[in-house]
Amino acid sequence: SQEAYVGIPEIVLPGMVSLPEMRLMERNNQKGIAKIGLVAYDAKTRVPLGAGGMSLAESDDSNYFLLGVGPYQGGSINKELKEGKKVKGATNIQKIPQSVAFNAPASSPIADPSGALHLASGQEEVKPKPDEKKSAEVSDAPVWAK
What we know:
2 helices, about 40% strand, flat
């Protein structure tokens, strides 16, 4: 989000006197980005069925005011909203994405049956869950709290 204006800022003088803010021209810009990734897997066996990839969408909005008159609007969000309002209820429209192509499934299951967490980036190793019995024996807690 960006805001800029040309004019005089509010000036507070000693006592009860202050000069108001006067904006001759004002500009407001906003930008939004969304990224979505899809992966399909079997919930029981935790075998990946395929990766659908990622989709990226971007919208922007800009408003201009000149001598207090405006807003003069621009950007992609206004066009998208106008097109969306023309659609009647219960109409199935698919614009982004029109189709999702999944890659072929891996030949061997990637999922760990122990239920350990695997990060999609693959940059961190999976740490095994500590056994409750071992952690209780090594605990610093007093005897009455064990």
